[in-house]
Amino acid sequence: MNIADSEKLAAGFTRLGLNETKTMDDATIVVINTCSIRQHAEDRAYSQLGRVRLQKEKRPDLKVAVMGCMVGPKTGDLKRRFPFVDTFARPQDFEPIIELIEGDENDLGGEFWPTTWSIPNGPTAYVPVVHGCDKFCTYCIVPYRRGRERSRPVNEIVREVNWLTNNGAREVTLLGQTVEAFGRDLNDSSEDSPDLGDLMRELSDLPELKRIRFLTSYPKHMTERILKAVADLPKVMECFSLPIQSGSDRILSEMRRGYELKEFREKINLVRSLMPDAGISTDIIVGYPGETEKDFQDSLDVLGEFRFDKVHIAAYSERPGTIAARTTTDDITAEEKSERLQRVEALSEQIGREKNEALLGSTQPVLIEGSRDDQFYGRTCSGKLVHIDVPVRIGEIVDVVIEHTGSYSLRGQPVDTLEALTI
Ligand code: 5AD
Ligand code: SF4
């Protein structure tokens, strides 16, 4: 979501006649887009701000803005800590930044900044479709910083995606903190509202658009209707990012995730019965306050049971202002968190390796996304990263025979190249 916000701001700057500079030395404005999901993310922003401060000391006319989730409703604290920052902007509130650069006073952004679409810098693009989050999981800062769920109108999204494909995008990833919440707030009753499947159906009609992805999923909102749309629509990739957060019902309830393991299992079973080859990744938090060795073992057990393709693991990080910060004590030591994190990592690496090995020798349609150091890369339908050594055309879907597999990526050769070699 932050990448999408940064790209939108960059597109707005371009429209106002500003160009991107290679280094900060040549810039008239620096914007640091921040994330607050864990302390580590904030620490990275602080170190960037240290660099900016030095630059501002050298060049007092440099304009400095801080935007994103570190900017809460009250900026007093930030202002005291970083007096050299000229303005602070909450997530997707571009107005203070446009004012700082004395941009178009008739177009200061506004909610979702509908007049400005980002310029794709390759064949893939992110498209936020629902902003904010209403779930208030106890550990999470997002609802406090990104506000309540608000969906964008379907026709506006279709226009944006059409524009993106006219500018070279071939794949879009529809974004929401809980993306299946899309549409629920658009009409008076959720029964008459469009859902994510309806949006996917509309987007599927765009001829230049080849692939549609979506994230992040929330088990309770993943209806059979949406899942059937994913299964039925050929352009929608069968690839899910479905956070479980914990394998212990006790911790899930403490976290107020709104589901028990039984319901999560039913959703995974439904996905896999409709789409046996679907890729499913998850997020897990280790060291939530009060997490016992038994709770942690439950998390290891579910990872063994569900065999996700990829697991994003995070050590619990207390976020001031959240329910957990107000009502619990961050009582698992840093050493214990780190040990649990490593145990999850080892297990998920092994499962990832085994799952990828099963793809050895198979042919996968890969959308080529770009190249780095003479190597091309792209993704399979289920979201696996594939490296290719021979030149392929960026933006095309190429059939690739998988020749090597690792825990996190695959390597292969296009069918066409292999056929040419055997002739
Ligand atoms: N501490 C650790 N991890 C967190 N996440 C969200 N909030 C916290 C926190 N306070 C993780 C969740 C979420 C992912 C984006 O970040 O696993 O799914
Ligand atoms: Fe945070 Fe996701 Fe829970 Fe929303 S659903 S509060 S974004 S963890």
Provide a short characterization of the protein structure.
This protein has 423 residues and is α/β, with parallel strands linked by helices.
CATH superfamily of the largest domain: tm_1862 like domain
Question: Which regions contain 5 or more consecutive residues with pLDDT less than 50?
Answer: none
Oligomer: single chain
Question: What is the terminal-to-terminal distance?
Answer: 47 Å
Q: Could you tell me the strand content as a percent range?
A: 15-25%
Question: What is the name of the CATH topology of the largest domain?
Answer: pyruvate-formate lyase- activating enzyme
Q: What's the number of structural domains? A: 3
Overall, the morphology is globular
* CATH architect. name of the largest domain: Alpha-Beta Horseshoe
Can you tag this structure with a few keywords?
binds iron/sulfur cluster, pyruvate-formate lyase- activating enzyme, alpha/beta, single chain, OB fold (Dihydrolipoamide Acetyltransferase, E2P), five-stranded mixed β-barrel, 3 domains, binds 5'-deoxyadenosine, 423 residues, Rossmann fold
